[in-house]
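forwarding from the other thread:

> can someone predict this with alpha-D-glucopyranose?

sure thing
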Amino acid sequence: MAAKWLDSAVFYEIYPQSFQDTNADGIGDFQGIMKRLDYIKELGCNAIWINPCFASPFGDAGYDVSDYYTVAPRYGTNEDLKELFAQAHQREMHVLLDLVPGHTSVEHPWFKESMKPEKNVYTDRYIWTDSVWEAPEGAQSLRGISDRDGSCMVNFFSHQPALNYGFYERNRPWQQAPEDEGPQASLEEMKNVMRFWFSMGCDGFRVDMAGAMVKNDPESKGTIALWQNVRAFLDREFPDKVLVSEWGEPDKSLQGGFHMDFLLHFGPSHYNDLFRCEEPFFSSRGKGDVKAFVEKYLDNYRKSERKGLICIPSGNHDMDRLARSLQGDELKIAFAFLLSMPGAPFIYYGDEIGMRYVEGIHSVEGGYNRTGSRSPMQWDHTANAGFSSASPEKLYVKMDPMEDRPCAEDQLAEPASLYHEVQKLIRLRGAHTALGNKADIEFVYVEENKYPLAYVRSSEDETVLVIVNPSKEACRISTANTKVDPAKAKAFYQLGDSVSYDEKTGEWVVPGGSVHFIA
Ligand code: GLC
Ligand code: CA
């Protein structure tokens, strides 16, 4: 019953602060995103996810909401956002917003009411102990901040009090059950928030910290049940809208009814082994390992029973830029993998041109080390790389100061650029049913500490063998289980030198630094 458009969705993540400024205040805005929709479409992406854009004091870049029903004035108005949805739809694109259901800003009016000692509608909207002398076990809390006698649990930074969705296991009188009135009211309010934005044209949400809603929930049973309830609501009222979770455990999130989940830099997925560790698998040094990742991936694939999509992002606003650990052809090879795996691809803005992590810059709005991955998009060679006409000191995050920083204009003009490789790969994905979001995968060569990685993607009418060899050394694998006839099959996509077939040994000979899609 999932939205059909997801089957061919390729997402582009936009950090709105840093994408395109149109009124010279140094901060990106909705008008800027609208101006660049054609760029995104031309790259091949047909869906976008915009990081939080609701009213906020911006202690955590907008992940601290103070009003779920009004956009932050720095980005524009609700009407502008509505216009953005409409402009995207005209181009057959879809738009996800970022929903932060687990906590609010301390400045949210609900929290201000909740701090009052007199009982009111918001008393149980957040998680409070019943005495200021008792702090919730195993969690940070806000204490001594008002006349209400209690400590309030926080979810992330200490200015982000946790909304109350109840406790799965309860051993203190102030811990409420998920079915209780307070937790139910929190959940119903989030459904109202979704209804509100859906009615404006929003196509779905990326859900922040989706796995941490119900507390004291060691196996996530309470949180899974909560999201099943939300999915039932969507199926009933908004069957075309979708939810993607920041959870990182697809075996749980997809059972909970999410249409998609991300593999992330935290959690059990081994995602970091690929791109972000001392010896990433995608480094040409060839010292990485992909086996642990694949084992976990298959485990998730099986346990989630194909209920939804497992998405492997190129990066996001919380992790280092891909280009911090990979360069040149390594990036192209990484994208050939990302764009030939099942699930919906997610490209973090600027990764398609190899934007770098900006070293040594000051933290902005709770970014800390994450700030280096949030620098302004580099469009061209005009002032501030075409991001903004504000004076450089007014920019939200400093530009990459390197003289040879990449920009979209140059890469569009250069046929051999990373941009064009990504564009080509997205087109191939759209043209081959076996490479689609929902088509099958079977791994045919994965060995501990060895190269290459090989897998077979298949749909009803097509079988494609993918061989990925990031290592600079050539390698060989037996053709026996690779599902395509080596005598007849041809590579319809190739990066690096050609693959060949050694008849005598019955092996594929795979050059160093190469990728092949064979059918
Ligand atoms: C998620 C967001 C991150 C934010 C945190 C708290 O991990 O991606 O940017 O700081 O949640 O909301
Ligand atoms: Ca602006």
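Residues 103-162 form a domain with the Oligo-1,6-glucosidase; domain 2 fold (CATH 3.90.400.10). thats all i got for now
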